[in-house]
Amino acid sequence: MRAVALVFFGLAVYYRGLVAAEDADEAVGKLLDPCLGVTKPEETPCYVCTKCVAGVWNCSSVDCSDKQCVDGYTPPGQCCAVCPNGPNCKTHGATIPLDKTVTLPDGYTCRCARDEDNDQMMAMCTPPR
């Protein structure tokens, strides 16, 4: 015969047969925490799971779209690139730090600024006089 569990004030009572203590603990735990025994999905640096709610894990992909430099690299074990020299732009073969104005060897004067419309770094240059 099958064992039937009744839960009353956190206590499990079993009828029609003996049930191992581990099974009783698991039955009570499942009723109190629907995430008990739910396997967490495999994570990667770019796919993370934060919490389990009602037996379902909340997982999402990491957003790395906020690129702030031209010389970024992705360290081993991480998802998004880092900027070793801070935010910057590249134009005419030169890397220019954010908010700096430089005169290039070809005479152009360039400035690296943040484009307010798309929040990206953008080099703006004026030709030599």
TrEMBL record:
Sorted UniProt keywords: Signal
Domain of life from the UniProt record: Eukaryota
Keyword Phosphoprotein: no
InterPro entries: VWC2/VWC2L
Signal is among the record's keywords: yes
GO cellular component: AMPA glutamate receptor complex; extracellular space; synapse
Protein name: VWFC domain-containing protein
Protein source organism: Lymnaea stagnalis
